[in-house]
């Protein structure tokens, strides 16, 4: 028997019930970040006061932060694995 799961406008059919716990946890984190962002900035991601370039600049800064976090963890792992 097929399991039909709807996500907004996307319908996906499965022949078994998949475990979506990881995806669901990400969805919850996104919703939490949206609430925190609204509380902090008083607006949502549908705001119209930023240009496309502004959005790209914000994304670049977030990506650079991610690169720093990743490098930090890689160094920690390398230090743990040194002979």
**Strand share of the residues?**
5-15%
Number of strands: 2
Q: How far apart are the first and last residues' alpha carbons, in Å?
A: 53 Å
Q: Which of globular, elongated, flat, extended, rod-shaped describes the shape? A: flat
Helix content: 55-70%
Query: What is the CA-atom radius of gyration, in angstroms?
Result: 19 Å
The major beta sheet can be summarized as: 2 strands, antiparallel
Average pLDDT across residues?
A: 90
The number of helical runs is 2
Q: Helices and strands: which structural class?
A: alpha+beta
The residue ranges in which pLDDT falls below 50 over 5 or more consecutive positions are none
Number of domains: 2
Q: Output the helix-strand order.
A: EEHH
Main-sheet strand order equals: 1-2
Describe what this molecule looks like in 3D.
This protein is α+β, with helices and mostly antiparallel strands and 83 residues long. The chain has two domains: 1-48, no CATH class; 50-83. The protein has two helices and two strands, in the order ββαα. It has a two-stranded antiparallel sheet with strand order 1-2. The radius of gyration is 19 Å and the shape is flat. The termini are far apart.
